[in-house]
Amino acid sequence: MTALSASAALFAGHVGPNAVSQLGAALLAGWGAEAARRVYARAGELAWLERPPAAMVPQERVARLHAALRDELPRTDALEAARDAGERTARYLLANRIPRPAQLLMRWLPGFLAARVLLAMIRRNAWTFAGSGRIVTQVPDRRTGRGWIEIHDNPLATNPCSWHEGVFTTLFASLAAPGARVIETQCGSDHPGSCCHFEISLGPGDAR
Ligand SMILES: [Zn+2]
Fold first, then answer.
1. Separation between Cα atoms, residue 100 and residue 29, nearest integer Å
2. Residue 50 zone, left/alpha/beta (φ > 0; ψ -120 to 50; rest)
3. What's the gap in Å between 202 CA and the centre of ligand 1?
4. Where in the chain are the domains?
5. Nearest 10 degrees: Cα torsion 120, 157, 67, 36
6. Distance, CA 200 to ligand 1 centroid (Å)?
7. Each residue's pLDDT tens digit, 139-166
8. CA of 199 to the centre of ligand 1 (A)
9. Which of the residues in the chain have pLDDT under 50?
10. What is the predicted pLDDT for the residue at 2?
11. How far is the CA of 26 from the centre of ligand 1 (A)?
């Protein structure tokens, strides 16, 4: 992930391509080609379904695609598809972007210390998850295992932000504590001038 940070300035207003490509993969796997085509067509992005982007993508177009998901599928299905896409994104980052030695270190560290390293990575690569938005974090408390992530001016806010919940939960469960959960308790799309607030819980006995 760190290797990508240097190019962040070149991609202002863009987010990682996984916000698009993994949504297509989730829809095709869980809802079929017809549903996937309806969602992408509604956003005017059928070409993205046929040839998933491999480079950074403009955040406005990604936001339109995620809005089309909500419009085309029943609410519970849309939330499930977005979460699945987020989990797939995290698995892609684990397989391709987060260096193996850093992963081994985090899995070896106590949960709250691993979470500290992971949150620093998330902040350094904020554009991957939040485009032009700003990420602020609170490292989980050693005793309670609780911390938080906030995305200010989240360009992908969809209330609730299930894609982000899927990404963050999978990253924390893989690298910090197996029982970790990251849940959005307030969405910035509902409160102008506010932010998306995600509560991190490392789970019982995992704060160590
Ligand atoms: Zn949100």
1. 28
2. alpha
3. 21
4. 2-95, 100-201
5. 20
6. 15
7. 999 999 999 999 999 999 999 999 999 9
8. 12
9. 1-6, 206-208
10. 43
11. 20
